[in-house]
């Protein structure tokens, strides 16, 4: 009997001693974030005594897995907003945004129109034009730097993912070796705590799911199901250049085989999650579209102003020149890595006809037909823009082909094979490449190159007006400040029947250029006379008389004329920017609307992500509370347990003392 009592007391002391140690460990790790509180579980033997105790982690695996998911979501939105909020602020700040510079440029242009002969007013226009191009350049270069930062973050994050994956594989191995008990690898629960902490750190970077194996190891699969850590090994996460965009890094899983070969698996951007996914989503859905739309806006402002200035006359009685230089905006289309041919393609703005210039990238594909190419707008991830039309052109190489539907020109060299593809990014860097082409204020062409007047002996009640100034082609002799002899210079009314008129158009040298018979519409006279693509057009308003004539002449010394300047100022209010490569080619936005849409899209996404971030943080807080209610250490509870186990330990010691007394009594009774 005393032996049984001694054995019971011994087992009790050892069990309660373990409980005291566990309680002490809980108390010591109160402030250890990765620690999961432990409890001793007592097991009764089949004979009624205490057989053994087991130390168990008090963890709810469901809430633990949910917490990792919530951490990934919060990290995703935090990373996204960290970059997007900064961009949103810069876009809306009057001191840094492009819209304020564009507004200032057009305001000074209007001031110059109020005093077209003033060189000082023209100089201010040039200064604002220079400031506007500088603002475009600086903002686009800032966005380029942001792309570099995202690429650096991706590279550093993949290094961190690899380090964590290696740690998880090592912990899996130790946990399997421990086989549910303490060993040289350390306490099994401590190993499990370390593994959970590594998984939480991984959750901050990417979103994943885990599967616990019978051996105790866990496998880690990314959000899309691709494996990162297997039971018996791991994959490497690497940041690599995408095909073919050399500036856009993507996340790839890489597995090295025994023969030294490697298998690579691309991870779609929208299936990465965590902070890495947040950075990639910001780059592809906010940063790059913003830069491309900024480039589109810069091209349309510069080309529209160039086209209009070339239609006017400057202070030196010369036809206007280009205000902005777009030659550096030409870009090389990047060939895909699996191309088999030697073809090369450069892409430039179709100057003077860039109204359909899109913001999106373009994919150019060589078809199986001779000299045929297909061009289609695509998104950052390579998918075709919704609603976009595929443009087909035929051009032998070497050669150049204009694509009016996209406002670009392609220069082809080399020999492309059927199926070869190229990525063109005409808008992406355009804003950083535009510059001022003129430095003399006299070169701003505020005047029209022609003026019109009615014949002095006219008897009718009509007057001639300039209807349009078109692209200069073959009517002007700028060397002698006059019209060419072949240019239309006089219109004569030769007959009238009721309200129908006969007219004849004469060149400057008196040659008849065409006649109009029985017209009731006196608008677009040169077009009605069948003059092809006239440099200018005129209307006759009113009721002329037979014999009346109307004269057109070069606007020599028309310094006080601001007609072309007004046309340039009016560009600010015209719809000159195409909304999307997926919509019809005709532009539907003004310059201000284009920039406003850019700002609105970024601001809307930032606002939406703030709401989603706040929601994700609220859910994460609830999950943390649920997790801590089970796994967290409560000092008051541990203090109570300490007293309980101390008293139980003392009682077990009393059992041993009692067994000793009984044993001594038995011995004395036998003497």
Note the topology.
Elements: H1 2-28, E1 38-44, E2 50-57, H2 61-92, H3 98-114, H4 119-178, H5 188-205, E3 208-212, E4 218-222, E5 227-230, E6 233-234, E7 236-241, E8 249-256, E9 262-266, H6 274-309, E10 324-325, E11 331-332, E12 334-335, E13 344-349, E14 361-366, E15 372-378, E16 391-394, E17 399-403, E18 408-413, E19 421-424, H7 430-433, E20 435-436, E21 450-454, E22 461-469, E23 476-477, E24 482-483, E25 488-497, E26 500-507, E27 512-519, H8 525-528, E28 536-543, E29 549-554, H9 563-570, H10 591-631, H11 635-669
Antiparallel strand pairs: 1-2, 3-4, 4-5, 5-6, 7-8, 8-9, 10-20, 11-13, 12-19, 13-18, 14-15, 14-19, 15-16, 17-18, 21-29, 22-28, 23-24, 25-26, 25-29, 26-27
Helix pairs in contact: 1-11, 2-5, 2-6, 2-10, 3-4, 3-9, 4-5, 4-6, 6-9, 6-10
InterPro entries: Flg_bb/hook_C_dom (IPR010930), FlgK (IPR002371), FlgK_helical (IPR053927)
Family: Belongs to the flagella basal body rod proteins family.
GO cellular component, one term: bacterial-type flagellum hook
Describe this structure in words.
This protein is 42% helix and 23% strand. By secondary structure, it is an alpha+beta fold. Strand 7 (236-241) and strand 8 (249-256) form a beta hairpin. The two termini are 19 Å apart. The protein has three domains: 1-58 and 632-670, no CATH class; 59-329 and 429-444 and 571-631, no CATH class; 450-554. The model has no long low-confidence stretch (mean pLDDT 90). Helix 3 runs antiparallel to helix 9 (563-570). 37% of the residues are buried. A five-stranded antiparallel beta sheet has the order 12-19-14-15-16, with no helix packed on it. A five-stranded antiparallel beta sheet has the order 21-29-25-26-27. Strands 3-4-5-6 form a four-stranded antiparallel beta sheet. The chain has eleven helices and 29 strands. The chain has helices at 2-28, 61-92, 98-114, 119-178, 188-205, 274-309, 430-433, 525-528, 563-570, 591-631, 635-669, and strands spanning 38-44, 50-57, 208-212, 218-222, 227-230, 233-234, 236-241, 249-256, 262-266, 324-325, 331-332, 334-335, 344-349, 361-366, 372-378, 391-394, 399-403, 408-413, 421-424, 435-436, 450-454, 461-469, 476-477, 482-483, 488-497, 500-507, 512-519, 536-543, 549-554. The protein is elongated and about 165 Å long. The longest helix has 60 residues, at 119-178.
């Amino acid at each position: 009997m005393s032996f049984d009592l001694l054995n019971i007391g011994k087992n009790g002391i050892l069990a309660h001693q373990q409980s005291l140690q566990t309680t002490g460990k809980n108390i010591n790790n109160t402030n250890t974030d990765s620690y999961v509180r432990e409890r001793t579980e007592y097991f009764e033997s089949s004979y009624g005594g205490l057989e053994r105790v087991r130390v168990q982690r008090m963890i709810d695996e469901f809430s633990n897995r949910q917490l990792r998911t919530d951490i990934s979501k919060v990290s995703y939105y935090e990373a996204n907003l960290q970059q997007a909020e900064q961009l949103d602020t810069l876009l809306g700040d009057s001191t840094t945004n492009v819209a304020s510079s564009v507004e200032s440029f057009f305001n000074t242009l209007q001031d110059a129109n109020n005093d077209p002969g003033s060189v000082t007013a023209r100089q201010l226009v040039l200064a604002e034009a220079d400031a506007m191009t500088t603002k475009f350049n600086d903002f686009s270069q800032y966005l380029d730097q942001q792309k570099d930062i995202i690429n650096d973050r991706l590279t550093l994050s993949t290094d961190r993912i690899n380090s964590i994956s290696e740690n998880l594989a090592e912990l899996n191995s130790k946990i399997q070796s421990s086989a549910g008990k303490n060993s040289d690898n350390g306490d099994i629960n401590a190993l499990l705590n370390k593994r959970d902490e590594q998984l939480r750190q991984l959750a901050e970077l990417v979103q994943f799911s885990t599967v616990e194996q019978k051996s105790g190891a866990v496998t880690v699969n990314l959000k899309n199901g691709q494996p990162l850590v297997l039971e018996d090994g791991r994959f490497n996460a690497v940041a690599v250049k995408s095909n073919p965009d050399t500036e856009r890094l993507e996340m790839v899983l890489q597995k090295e085989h025994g023969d030294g070969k490697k298998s690579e698996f691309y991870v779609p951007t929208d299936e990465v999650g965590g902070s890495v996914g947040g950075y990639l989503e910001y780059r592809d859905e906010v940063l790059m579209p913003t830069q491309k739309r900024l480039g589109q806006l810069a091209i349309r402002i510069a080309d529209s102003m160039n086209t209009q200035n070339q239609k006017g006359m400057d202070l030196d009685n010369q036809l206007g020149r280009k205000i902005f230089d777009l030659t550096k905006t030409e870009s090389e289309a990047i060939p895909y890595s699996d191309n088999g041919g030697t073809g090369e393609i450069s892409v430039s703005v179709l100057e003077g006809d860039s109204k359909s210039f899109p913001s999106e990238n373009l994919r150019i594909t060589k078809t199986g037909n001779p000299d045929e190419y297909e061009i289609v707008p695509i998104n950052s991830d390579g998918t075709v823009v919704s609603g976009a039309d595929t443009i087909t052109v035929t051009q032998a190489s070497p050669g150049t082909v204009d694509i009016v539907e996209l406002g670009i020109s392609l220069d082809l060299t080399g020999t492309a094979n059927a199926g070869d593809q190229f990525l063109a990014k005409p808008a992406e860097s355009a804003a950083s490449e535009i510059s001022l082409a003129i430095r003399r204020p006299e070169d701003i062409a505020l005047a029209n190159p022609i003026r019109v007047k009615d014949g002095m002996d006219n008897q009718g009640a009509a007057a001639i007006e300039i209807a349009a100034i078109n692209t200069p082609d073959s009517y002007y002799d700028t060397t002698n400040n006059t019209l060419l002899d072949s240019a239309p210079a006089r219109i004569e009314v030769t007959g009238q029947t009721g309200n129908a008129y006969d007219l004849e158009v004469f060149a400057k040298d008196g040659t008849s250029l065409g006649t109009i018979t029985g017209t009731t519409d006196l608008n677009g006279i040169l077009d009605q006379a069948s003059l092809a693509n006239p440099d200018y057009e005129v209307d006759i308003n009113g009721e002329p008389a037979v014999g009346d004539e109307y004269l057109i002449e070069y606007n020599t010394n028309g310094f006080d004329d601001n007609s072309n300047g007004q046309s340039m100022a009016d560009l600010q209010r015209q719809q000159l920017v195409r909304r999307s490569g997926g919509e019809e080619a005709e532009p539907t936005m003004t310059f201000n609307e284009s920039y406003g849409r850019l700002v609105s899209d970024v601001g809307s996404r930032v606002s939406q992500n703030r709401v989603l971030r706040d929601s994700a943080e609220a859910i994460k807080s609830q999950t943390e509370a649920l997790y801590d209610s089970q796994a967290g250490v409560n000092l008051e509870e541990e203090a109570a347990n300490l007293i309980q186990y101390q008293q139980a330990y003392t009682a077990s010691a009393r059992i041993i003392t009692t067994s000793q007394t009984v044993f001594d009594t038995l011995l004395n009774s036998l003497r």
